[in-house]
User: What shape does this take?
Amino acid sequence: QVQLVESGGGLVQAGDSLRLSCAASGRAFSVYVLAWFRQAPGNQREFVAATGGSAVYADSVKGRFTISRDNAKNTVDLQMDRLKPEDTATYYCAAGTKWGLLSTIKTPDSYDTWGRGTQVTVSS
Assistant: This one.
């Protein structure tokens, strides 16, 4: 089973960029669907982006965020540009094996393994 560790969070101003990275340990990294979710205080965990057969994004981040994976390095990154205060949340990396319907890709229950999260704070 894969284990995930996120890094790269921090405090930035609106309009700035930030790059999150998720390092995975374990075997067969390339077979996993990898995703980023986020959760703000008082809110449910929210889908951000996923990569499996292709890249899928939440509408709220489409055109600003880019997910990329490097199977040789066992990493999946999230490049976040033009950040907004509403992007403030704890960001989690997740791994699963289900790919297909958007409803499947975007639900947290489709993912078996989670990192502990990294905090992103965007000031206005």
Remarks:
- Residues 102-105 form the longest helix (4 residues).
- The chain has one helix and eleven strands.
- The helical segments are 102-105.
- The two ends are 40 Å apart (CA to CA).
